[in-house]
Specification:
Elements lengths: L1 H8 L10 H18 L8 H5 L3 H16 L2
Length: about 70
């Protein structure tokens, strides 16, 4: 589930946790970018990310609770 969300939001790199080479390559990619530029770029999709922030999730939960109470 987390991998799907990270990919959908373009919020980072997803690697197989059992694949040491993939983990190493991902870390080195970010480290080298930091060495070159002084930071690590981020291109997350704000619209996707906002769907999982507290206000949006609270509103969704309120809607579920309201529908249960009105039954």
């Amino acid at each position: 589930m987390a991998a799907v969300l990270i990919r959908e939001a373009n919020a980072g790199t997803v690697v197989d946790s059992r694949n040491r080479q993939e983990i190493k390559d991902a870390i080195l990619k970010y480290y080298r970018e930091f060495e070159r530029t002084g930071n690590v770029s981020y291109a997350g999709k704000e619209g996707v990310i906002r769907r999982y922030e507290h206000p949006a999730l609270a509103e969704k939960l309120a809607g579920i609770l309201d529908s249960l109470v009105s039954r």
